[in-house]
Amino acid sequence: MLKPLGDRVIVSVEDEEEKTVGGIVLASNAKEKPTTGKVVAAGPGATNHHGDVVPLTVKVDDNVMFDKYSGTNVSYDGADYLVLHEKDLLAIVE
Amino acid sequence: MLKPLGDRVIVSVEDEEEKTVGGIVLASNAKEKPTTGKVVAAGPGATNHHGDVVPLTVKVDDNVMFDKYSGTNVSYDGADYLVLHEKDLLAIVE
Amino acid sequence: MLKPLGDRVIVSVEDEEEKTVGGIVLASNAKEKPTTGKVVAAGPGATNHHGDVVPLTVKVDDNVMFDKYSGTNVSYDGADYLVLHEKDLLAIVE
Amino acid sequence: MLKPLGDRVIVSVEDEEEKTVGGIVLASNAKEKPTTGKVVAAGPGATNHHGDVVPLTVKVDDNVMFDKYSGTNVSYDGADYLVLHEKDLLAIVE
Amino acid sequence: MLKPLGDRVIVSVEDEEEKTVGGIVLASNAKEKPTTGKVVAAGPGATNHHGDVVPLTVKVDDNVMFDKYSGTNVSYDGADYLVLHEKDLLAIVE
Amino acid sequence: MLKPLGDRVIVSVEDEEEKTVGGIVLASNAKEKPTTGKVVAAGPGATNHHGDVVPLTVKVDDNVMFDKYSGTNVSYDGADYLVLHEKDLLAIVE
Amino acid sequence: MLKPLGDRVIVSVEDEEEKTVGGIVLASNAKEKPTTGKVVAAGPGATNHHGDVVPLTVKVDDNVMFDKYSGTNVSYDGADYLVLHEKDLLAIVE
Question: What keywords sit in the KW lines (chains A, B, C, D, E, F, G) (predicted)?
């Protein structure tokens, strides 16, 4: 299990399904990087200079939107995740 | 529905109508990026180091002006939006 | 009407009159960008981390001087304006 | 013994085992840098501007995940370690 | 009249007199930019985050020294001035 | 004697002994820069914005480890030293 | 007289004497820039955001060491000086 530190969240990013035409997979050269995903783990919040923890706003199972250049890609247990600071999340998708 | 986080606002940006001459659409190579739009969602405000939320000034339905290089373009439900930090908004257009 | 946000001011910038010699307009290749203008709108002031607003010093109708590389050019209602943070204003011209 | 200073942790990074096929070691040109390791030492925490120490969250023997470009590689007593600021750790792996 | 804003001062910079030999003006290719001048106007001081003004140290008529790459050159009423933040002044010349 | 200012320490860095084979000195083209040394002097600590001094953690005679690109090389009295901010020290070597 | 502002000090830097062999001055192509000098004037200290002055540690006549790329070279009354922020001084040489 991954437990994010500080103000980080771990997001599970699913590739958009590949489009098929009559069973033939269409290779997409310009396939966009996903910009939404589901929060699978959230850190306790950032620790400020006084040692206090400022809790996060997002929580596990929130669907979130982010810029395609944000965060760090990590692999764990055969799946790919994105680790982001909460401040790099743009919006919650409801 | 998109719920922006922190001090972000989501702006609906409409392309200027294409100019037509006698029904013929004029292709504009130098088409300017729009710099005004309507706020469709506003975040609760930034959380400061003490954990307090500083509310935003703009609200939903405000028409706002911004620099053409500001913000992040996102697509949601078939429409295009711009996500900006409130501090990157220049003015409210009344 | 444009209502600037935060610590911004909107300045109306008039091009210097073109110089003419005996009625002939002299094309100036090295035409300087204007560096003075009149404040047509001023924001309420910056909001600090505690949520307090720090009021601006300049006010509407002040003539102000600024660096030619400062601010953002915007168009509104057929006129051109410059939007600047108050801290980028150099001086009030009296 | 290495005693990290401030908010630093020292991580022991083991190369992934080389894959072998029928006893033949497969040379991997694209061998990834490791991005997980075990904390072997943790600093007391950062000293803030008032002279107070803000303790760390991670502790010795935690398995941690980090970006492959984070930290400083050091050698000590024949082994290789990575020295990182705690804020550069992404997650604890449990 | 120019009234500098915040922590700015306006300095009147006189070119060093050109050297002449027997009445012939010597062209100086490597003519140095002046690095001293007289303060002709001083702002009220910077406004801090609490809205308080921190007064300046230098005052009108002080001769000051500055780095030749500091400040913004402005023209006003036919004369050239340099506008600098007080923190970019190196020393008072007495 | 060198008395470091603020949060600086002065470290005496000894080159690793050159390896010899049968008395022949082996020129090492890829000779690594040293990354450990002994603290020979430590400053009183950084002065914060209130004028208070925050004391250092390391002390004279500590063996310390640092990144090979940290600090400033200085010569004094025929010997070479490295001057570093304490925050650029990675660990104490015991 | 030069009176440095804020947290600046003015240092008199003497070129190392040129080496001569039998009266012949040896041109040194790789002549090092001096990195020590004597403090000839010290500012009152930096003014913090509350308007308080934080006094300096070094005083006139201290011999100080600095990085060869620090500070601003100025000429005054026929002599060359270096103006530095106190935080750019490495050590006092006793």
Answer: Chaperone, Cytoplasm
Round to whole Å and give the CA distance between B92 and B94.
6
Q: G8-14+33-93 — its CATH code?
A: 2.30.33.40
F65 with D49: Cβ contact below 8 A: no
Please tell me what DSSP assigns to residue C55: -
Tens digit of each residue's pLDDT (9 = 90 or more) over C39-86: 999 999 998 877 789 899 999 999 999 998 999 999 999 899 999 999
CA distance E49 to chain C (A): 6
Residue G31 has pLDDT above 80, yes or no: no
CATH homologous superfamily for C8-15+30-93?
GroES chaperonin (2.30.33.40)
Cα separation of A41 and A62, whole Å?
Answer: 10
Confidence of residue A64 (pLDDT cuts 50, 70, 90): very high
Q: Would you say E53 and E42 are in contact if contact means Cβ atoms under 8 Å apart? A: no
Q: Round to whole Å and give the CA distance between D16 and D18.
A: 6
For each of chain F's 94 residues, which pLDDT tens digit applies?
A: 999 999 999 999 876 555 556 666 555 554 567 799 999 999 999 988 777 898 999 999 999 999 989 999 999 998 999 999 999 999 999 9
User: Rg for chain C (alpha carbons), in Å?
Assistant: 16
C-alpha closest to that of B2 among B53, B72, B52: B72
Selecting from F5, F51, F74 the residue whose C-beta is nearest the C-beta of G92 gives F5
Q: How many CB atoms lie within 10 A of CB F42?
A: 22
ipTM above 0.85, yes or no: no
Contacts of A39 in chain B (CB under 8 A): none
From chain E, the residues in CB contact with G72 under 8 A are 67, 90
Query: CATH class for domain A8-15+28-93?
Result: mainly beta
Among chain D residues, the shortest Cα distance to F48 is held by D49
Class of domain D8-15+29-93: mainly beta
Question: What is the spatial distance between Cα G8 and Cα E2, in angstroms, rounded to a whole number?
Answer: 28
Q: Which residues of G touch E67 (CB under 8 A)?
A: 72
Tell me: pLDDT of A30 over 90.
no
Domain assignments of chain F as residue spans, ordered by start: 8-15+32-93
pLDDT beyond 70 at B19: no
Q: In this structure, are residues G9 and G43 in contact, taking their beta carbons and an 8 Å threshold?
A: yes
Q: Which residues of chain D have pLDDT under 50?
A: 30
For G47, name the nearest residue in chain F, comparing CA atoms only. Answer: F49
Domain F8-15+32-93 superfamily per CATH: GroES chaperonin (2.30.33.40)
Structure tokens at C29: 């290749």
